[in-house]
Design brief:
alpha/beta; globular; 6 helices; single chain; Rossmann fold; 8-stranded mixed beta sheet
Length: about 190
């Protein structure tokens, strides 16, 4: 596979279940949202369909431009280099991206998102758990225990709204196409007080 374009075509437009679930009880204003690691903008588009007025999407891959629609402000940069505007966002998400970053960079991102959220703003994200195939194969990814993840968020100042764990067999897209993989993911929903 030469780029993520083929992967995005396989993934399609279905939003990440973490985002769908988080928005079920979302009752604050829906002015502006932040999508870190936006990929094919499927989650950004879903947020627009749920009433958000504007989305700031961040991804390092130029192919993301091919999926751009109005009301999405796209920044082509690494998520760890993006600095959100202070007290701006009602909602933020990062799905399937943070596990490629070490804990110091994840911590920096969580701090920056905290500053970028409005009071009562919500941030949902996921990481790999310690039993994930990639972790056990010692690939260049990073994992957490549920305790480590919660401790990191609380230390920054977030209120923990919920922690989820997923263990399932699926696939990932490689240069050769889809390959089977056991996923162990932890998801966290937090709120800025």
């Amino acid at each position: 596979m030469d780029s993520y374009k083929e992967y995005y075509e396989v993934v399609g437009e279905k939003p990440n279940s973490l985002v769908v679930e988080a928005l079920k009880d979302f009752t604050t204003t829906k002015s502006k949202a932040l999508d870190l690691g936006a990929g094919n903008l499927r989650d950004s588009k879903f947020l627009l369909s749920k009433g958000f007025k504007k989305i700031v999407a961040v991804d390092k891959d130029e192919v993301t431009r091919k999926f751009l629609v109005p009301k999405i402000d796209l920044h082509i940069t690494a998520i760890e280099d993006f600095i959100p505007e202070t007290n701006t966002f009602d909602f933020a998400l990062s799905c399937n991206t943070l596990f490629f970053l070490d804990q110091s960079r994840v911590s920096r991102i969580l701090h920056r998102v905290f500053a970028g959220l409005k009071p009562k703003g919500i941030f949902v994200f996921n990481v790999l758990g310690n039993d994930d195939d990639w972790v056990l194969q010692q690939r260049p990814v990073y994992s957490y225990s549920d305790r480590e993840l919660e401790t990191l968020a609380v230390r920054i100042g977030y209120e923990v709204l919920g922690l989820g764990e997923g263990r399932y067999n699926s696939y990932f897209m490689s240069q050769e196409g889809p390959l089977p993989k056991f996923w162990h993911q932890l998801s966290l929903a937090v709120r800025k007080p």
